[in-house]
Amino acid sequence: MASKSSTKITSLLVLICFAAFSLTTEACHPTDKAALLDFKSQINQDPTKLLQTWNASTDCCVQWEGVACGSTGRVVNLTRPGLFSTDDSIFDTFMNGTISPSLGNLEFLRFLDLSNLKQLVGTIPSTLGKLTHLTDFFLDTNQLIGPIPASFEKLTKLRRMYLSDNRLSGSVPASMLQHMSSLSELGLFNNQLSGGIPSTIRNLVSLTKIDIHGNQFSGSIPSTIGSLKKLNYVDLSANKITGNIPQSIGQLSQLNLLYLFQNSLSGSIPSSFSGLSALKFARLEDNKLSGGLPSSIGKMSLQRLVLDNNKLTGELPVSIGNLTNLDTLSLKNNGFTGKIPSSFSNLNVLTLDLSHNKLTGKIPAFKTAFPASSFEGNSGLCGSPLPPCKTA
């Protein structure tokens, strides 16, 4: 027969286990359930039944796919993307409908992913600015229109935000960037956004990636971009950006990719460019850049350098021959003069285009055989693969 003390201990353990179980299985909060059901009611088509398990008679914390709750029964995760994978399959589906403003009532939500649903339409509800605990926010690859809500300035805990591949318009609220010091990744590409890049971008001190290509941004690149020391990926291409490349860009010592092509940038490539010691991929083609290439460019770690269709002049720096990791070098349609330095024979490039410049002299012996088209439009060049040089 068990002693009283052992019985008490057993009873206490049962109570502790029951309490712990209760904390982790508390039913979905009615406010959250109502918000999610309202979202479902705004969906017109759900061909693969992503929301089939969302039923008013069941517990959203336990039985609803794509929903997860914290220990108090409040929804912290809403994940219903149109492109997702399982252990053995990849699913690509869609949902048609609008985003219910009621989602703003999920006040403890930390992770929201409604990306790649392809046919979410309408505007982004301003009520989503109430989700002040949100850290990860994905609405990309839909058909959303209208502006980015100014209420997003309250999303101060965001680490990743992707609104790309939609039809958003208007400018980026300057106040939004002012308060997002935790933001690490910002994706707004392939929209119809316009206006300048706000100078408040300087407050994004945790930013590692910014991709806003394929919009209608205008004005200049803020000089404050140099203060974002953690940046490793910058894509501002295919916009209407003007002005000079700021000298401060050379302070981005962790930058790995810099795409500024298809804009209207002018002035010279700043001498600070060589300070981008980690830069591997640089595309600055289709601008109005002028002047020469910095002689210190050979100190970099470049793998791809594309400067086509600018107004660059001067001689090609001998130091380019030090870029032994370079696999693509394209400088066509500029005004480079003088000889191709013999140091270029050190390069391991697989793609080379020096056509339509003003280069002269004998082509050095590259490690890879290139077609004549790589050198055409330079009337002063000779040697393989062009006609032989004339001997005196």
Secondary structure topology:
Blueprint lengths: L3 H21 L5 H12 L1 E3 L21 E3 L5 E5 L3 E3 L4 E3 L2 E4 L12 E3 L4 E4 L14 E3 L6 E2 L13 E3 L4 E4 L3 H5 L6 E3 L4 E5 L12 E3 L4 E4 L13 E3 L4 E4 L13 E3 L4 E5 L12 E3 L4 E4 L12 E3 L4 E5 L12 E3 L4 E5 L11 E3 L4 E5 L17 E3 L10
Parallel strand pairs: 3-7, 6-8, 7-9, 9-11, 10-12, 11-13, 12-14, 13-15, 14-16, 15-17, 16-18, 17-19, 18-20, 19-21, 20-22, 21-23, 22-24, 23-25, 24-26, 25-27, 26-28, 28-29
Antiparallel strand pairs: 1-6, 2-3, 4-5
Structure explained in plain terms:
The chain is mainly beta and 392 residues long. Helix content is 10%, strand content 27%. Strand 2 and strand 3 form a beta hairpin. Mean pLDDT is 92; it is low at 1-25.
Key phrases:
29 strands; mainly beta; 392 residues; 10% helix; disordered N terminus; eleven-stranded parallel beta sheet
What is the overall shape?
elongated
- The helical percent reads under 10%
Total beta strands:
29
Number of helices: 3
Distance between the termini: 117 Å
What Rg do the Cα atoms give? 28 Å
Outline:
With 392 residues, this protein is mainly β. Helix content is 10%, strand content 27%. The protein has 3 helices and 29 strands.
